Amino acid sequence: MLEGIVIHHWLRHRLLLYLSSNQFTFTGNTGGSTTNALLTITDAVLRHLDSGSGASRLLLVDFSKAFDRAQKGCIIKCLANLGAPRECVLWIENFLTGRKQRVSFNGTLSTWRSVISGVPQGSVLGPVLFAILVDSLQPVDAQSQYIKYADDITVVHNIRNERDDRLQSEWDAICKWSADFQLPINSKKTCVLDIITRKGLSLQRIQTPDDSFLEIVHSTKLLGIILKNNLKWDEHIKYCVKKA
Questions:
Q1: Integer Cα distance of 206 and 148 in angstroms
Q2: Quick check: 30 pLDDT over 50?
């Protein structure tokens, strides 16, 4: 038992080496926190807008039950693409294969059922395996930056004018990744927050695969903080005071 736990922790440490720096949880280092994720987002916005007029478009992506729907084959593929040793990949594949679960209610146990998707939550390896899966989602445009906190993905797309606006391309790539990796996006909870400092700047709406459009919001809750399109904190302060 102890030997197995030691192996899991050793594997976790090795796997963390493959993660990019834009993941702010499950990393096991001091940089992993909601505070650092939010600071990275606001810093990217302020550096861009302080250096000239334009806009920072924030695309906040919401996945539906991502931890439960993560596919074993996709995780193994990501590990192989990252260059993880073959022995490590095979060990992880064995770890994720043949898992079963059952429910206990009022002293009664259900029958065992096979677990066909998801990472083992509560395990040492589960969170980092999910992070490796999400790590394969990367920007397609040089003007975009992805900030990830578990399955919360925030795309910061900085532009100066309408010609620079390629947020639709980022969204299309995310939708394709979602289909390829079988992690559905909840379009109703996915939204766009535009922070604009250039007068008269007209930004295109983001079209979804079903020909509807993502909601453009004036404020939204992001990692526990209410963020507004004018970067003022009055709404979040009122929320905190009311909660207190």
A1: 21
A2: no
